[in-house]
Amino acid sequence: MDDKGFSNAAPGNAEADKLHRRIQTREARIGVVGLGYVGLPLVRAIVKSGFSVVGFDIDPKKVEMLNAGRSYIHHIPSAMIAELVEAKRFRATANFSDIEAVDAVLICVPTPLTRQREPDLTYVVGTTEAVAPYLRPGQLIVLESTTYPGTTRDVMKPILEKGGLKSGVDFFLAYSPEREDPGNAEYDAARIPKVVGGDGPAALSLTRALYDRFVAGTVPVSSAETAEAVKLTENIFRAVNIALVNELKLVFEAMGIDVWEVIEAAKTKPFGYMPFYPGPGLGGHCIPIDPFYLTWKAREHGITTRFIELAGEVNTSMPRHVVEKLAQALSDRQAKSLKGARILLIGLAYKKNIDDTRESPSLKLMELLEARGAEVSYHDPLVPEILSLREHPEFVGRRSVPLDAAGLKSHDATLICTDHDGIDYRLIAAASPLVVDTRNACARAGLHAANIIKA
Ligand SMILES: NC(=O)c1ccc[n+]([C@@H]2O[C@H](COP(=O)([O-])OP(=O)(O)OC[C@H]3O[C@@H](n4cnc5c(N)ncnc54)[C@H](O)[C@@H]3O)[C@@H](O)[C@H]2O)c1
What distances in angstroms separate CA 331 from CA 136, 397, 408, 412, 454, one per listed residue? Predict the structure, then answer.
């Protein structure tokens, strides 16, 4: 027992004990379902720790690429996938009957919002229904996707138990939220502790035994619901703090104070302050989405989540603020209107050094600028072409334009949306008639000039 009363011992159920031994000897075969931004790094961490992994995905193109040793995610090199495949430690499949052959199934499928901005559990339910026919005694099923408290026990468990097997007795069900930070070289999957909550003590004990083999350590909590709540708390904390700093940006801007300078100075306080940075709006599949999983669930309990809603409002208003700032600068400095202006947008990904464009504020900016009559092109070395977009299918097929002096001069303004490393900010500042910088990228590169404004 640890000091919180969680046991590290073998579960004490015959099926669970068998799996526990297979985990200890690394004979257990691991299945990872959903081979995306979360699933692939997880595969790498598990294989590195000595297990063999079967990856499951419904996208046959991804399966084919992985088995050919090719990656489709910028920060996961193909060589790494090829090494795992060649060593016969990893293979991908779209065939769910192979679930029967694995001992543990870790599920990392998308959890987006519907058009009405409510939780869309289609992928979680679809995966659980695909796993259920092949569920056998002694298996461990772990959900990793971000979701509202109750999903593992109230949504997944009844589907899995339909065939007659009982959770906690015949098979084991747990929730362990993913904390992947794509593009963060300092913290990869193996270096981030994982929170674990089980449907019963055997599930908790097995999940810990497994994850302790390939992550920096597990943090047990008393239930799957608590673990689900932990993940939402982490992301809501970010959403609210980003909204706060976005609001401060507007206030300080009106007072002629640079919010970036304020943050740099504030973060020298060694306690009680943590820096968050303003930007053109929220992006990615987590921070703009996850808080509304809780908002939705809270309504069931008659509670309104005013803080979360307010943060959402502030954050979603940021792209409009940027567009206004750009329109004003064009008018003041070049006596031009947005209508007919040529705007070059730098960075399409929702954050630096990754190729993920999901919910990217750059797309919202493109939409707003074009609605005002501007002609918009983009440069993003990590997104050479817009391949598919759930939210903005009208942009699919557009291609990144080269970044050179002639191209910059031919645009009325350059709008820095994503501060990828490796972009030549010096060239942008030198050749562009007007630079609107939403990330403080120019100042961080030591560039201060009259044609650069912050937004
Ligand atoms: N990307 C991140 O940084 C991150 C961080 C923490 C948590 N999360 C959460 O992890 C989950 C997965 O996110 P992601 O970014 O990896 O998504 P993703 O879109 O990159 O990957 C999901 C994969 O699941 C596959 N898939 C969809 N339905 C399937 C099904 N029924 N069976 C098998 N495969 C299926 C898709 O083809 C895709 O390859 C989400 O809940 C997300 O909120 C993501």
Answer: 67, 31, 19, 11, 16
Question: Catalytic annotation on 442?
Answer: no
Phi/psi at 450 (nearest 5 deg)?
Answer: -65, -25
pTM of the full structure? 0.93
Give the C-alpha distances (Å, rounded to integers) separating 408 from 358, 375, 378, 414, 448.
Answer: 26, 14, 11, 7, 18
Please give the structure tokens belonging to residue 221.
């909590």
Distance from the alpha carbon of residue 373 to the mean position of ligand 1, in angstroms: 36
For ligand 1, the distance from its centroid to the CA atom of residue 38, given in whole angstroms, is 6
- Contacts (Cβ under 8 Å, ≥6 apart) of 329: 413, 434, 436, 453
Cβ neighbours for 410, distance < 8 A, ≥ 6 positions apart = 342
Per-residue pLDDT tens for 143-177?
999 999 999 999 999 999 999 999 999 999 999 99
Ligand 1: residues with CB < 6 A are: 33-39, 56-59, 62, 108-111, 123, 126-127, 130, 145-146, 178, 180, 182, 285-286
What's the sign of the alpha-carbon dihedral 297, 300, 301, 305? Answer: positive
Strand, helix or coil at 128? helix
How far is the C-alpha of 76 from the C-alpha of 233, rounded, in Å?
Answer: 28
Of 62, 176, 178, the one to substitute when testing ligand 1's pocket (max ligand atoms within 8 A of C-beta) is 178
